[in-house]
């Protein structure tokens, strides 16, 4: 099968973006998705974004998010910005504000000036069963307006704040991000039994009340240069712990994101707003083998 694609990135978090409206991909296997994402034998990407027709009347598009390992996830902040640039550049819409269906929710995305895209990520999910997170047997402590939990692993125990931004995150504060054992402990946190759907492990260093540095070990993809939902989750966790104030500049290896969450004014139901770049790298076509 010959497949047309676009390679894009949002702050270094890279994607293969595919028009599934005008190409039939209904028979793609998990092995074929892994082949496309493979950096040695395929195109190479952290994740694949598959654009489809919506299934709900209030959405103009739908997109699915497929990890480097072929698994599918619910949400991707950096990918949502790339989606906007893709449908605009491909003339699939002439609107600058777009409603898109992702998993079981609706996102409102807006193209801004200078290549930036703003995404209304909705309110964070803090109800533990919905994250999902099962804290039974874990030590806990209250910090300002949230509860942190101590995750035991074979490499030590870590205080984390569980947050979902459409996908689950476990955020921890570290003193020095460049010395944090992200690659060692990230997989242990990702597969911790307290997170039955696995979890993205966030490592946050606080620079000041409006600035953080962040690394994220993403479930199914490993550490990425940037993670949009991870940036949102980290800011939510920091604000709930009383150590950050909105807006927050999030510095990742791949670039900078601006996260706003008006918790002080509107409480936990306030939407998280994310603004950041989205760029096209190249376009091409590839023959996908039967796998």
UniProtKB/TrEMBL annotation:
Gene3D superfamilies: Diaminopimelate Epimerase, Chain A, domain 1. The record marks 169, 218 as: Could be important to modulate the pK values of the two catalytic cysteine residues. Transmembrane segments: none annotated. GO terms for biological process: lysine biosynthetic process via diaminopimelate. The active site is at residues 76, 227. Its EC number is 5.1.1.7. One of its GO terms (molecular function) is diaminopimelate epimerase activity. NCBIfam families: DapF (TIGR00652). Catalyzes the stereoinversion of LL-2,6-diaminopimelate (L,L-DAP) to meso-diaminopimelate (meso-DAP), a precursor of L-lysine and an essential component of the bacterial peptidoglycan. This is Diaminopimelate epimerase. The gene is dapF.
């Amino acid at each position: 099968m010959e497949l047309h694609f676009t390679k894009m990135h949002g702050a270094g978090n890279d994607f293969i973006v595919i028009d599934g409206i005008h190409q039939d991909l209904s028979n793609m296997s998990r092995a074929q998705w892994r082949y496309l994402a493979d950096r040695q034998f395929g195109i190479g990407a952290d994740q694949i974004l598959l654009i489809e027709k919506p299934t709900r009347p209030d959405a103009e598009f739908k997109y699915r998010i497929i990890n480097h390992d072929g698994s599918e996830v619910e949400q991707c902040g950096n990918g949502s910005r790339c989606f906007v640039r893709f449908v605009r550049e491909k003339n699939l819409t002439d609107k600058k504000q777009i409603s898109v269906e992702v998993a079981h929710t609706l996102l409102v995305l807006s193209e801004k000036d200078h290549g930036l895209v703003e995404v209304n990520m909705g309110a964070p999910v803090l109800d533990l069963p919905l994250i999902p997170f099962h804290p039974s047997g874990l030590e806990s402590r209250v910090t300002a307006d949230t509860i942190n939990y101590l995750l035991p692993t074979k490499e030590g125990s870590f205080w984390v704040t569980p947050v979902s931004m459409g996908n689950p995150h476990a955020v921890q504060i570290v003193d020095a991000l460049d010395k944090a054992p992200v690659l060692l402990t990230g997989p242990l946190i990702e597969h911790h039994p307290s997170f039955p759907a696995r979890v993205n492990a966030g490592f946050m260093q606080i620079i000041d009340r409006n600035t953080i540095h962040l690394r994220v070990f993403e479930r199914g993809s490993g550490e990425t240069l940037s993670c949009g939902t991870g940036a949102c989750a980290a800011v939510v966790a920091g604000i709930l712990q009383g150590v950050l104030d909105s807006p927050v500049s999030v510095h990742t290896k791949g670039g900078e994101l601006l996260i706003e969450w008006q918790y002080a004014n509107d409480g936990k139901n306030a939407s998280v707003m994310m603004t950041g770049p989205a760029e096209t790298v190249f376009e091409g076509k590839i023959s996908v083998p039967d796998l």
